[in-house]
Amino acid sequence: MTSATLSDTSPFARIGGATTVDRLVDAFYDNMETLPEAQAIRAMHAQDLGPTRAILKVYLAEWLGGPREYSAQKGHPRLRMRHMHLSIGPQERDAWLLCMSQALATTVPDVEMREHLYQNLAKLADWMRNDPDNAHDKGHR
């Protein structure tokens, strides 16, 4: 996928807008509820996933180039800061990515776009790690 292709239309529009983002997030959390590999990250969340689903839908829509509702409601995402109270290492990252990969596979039929999104989400998930071996933090201690 060329950068020209991506700049022509936002990923948000290319995948089908809010409808697809809603389906993606619902599939992601359904995977978190059912995949044995995701039990540890499911345990990090409240019993009622409704509010968490709603926040991720708004965040992902903006992250994909859609409406800037997340920033209007919550300000800068500050994702690492908002998750610092949780222990996020390679296992948690991988479980999150497994849930997201399967959700992408069932909601984004465009293989090229799906792979592009997965690669960027994998970078984001790795950056969220707050374990001592996170290369992003080396040299900042």
From TrEMBL:
InterPro entries per record: GlbO/GLB3-like, Globin-like_sf, Globin/Proto, Hemoglobin_trunc
Keyword terms, alphabetized: Heme, Iron, Metal-binding, Transport
Signal peptide: none
Superkingdom, taxonomy of origin: Bacteria
A Pfam family of this chain: Bac_globin
SUPFAM superfamilies in alphabetical order: Globin-like (SSF46458)
Similarity annotation: Belongs to the truncated hemoglobin family. Group II subfamily.
Alphabetical list of PANTHER family matching this protein: TWO-ON-TWO HEMOGLOBIN-3
Protein name listed in UniProt: Group II truncated hemoglobin
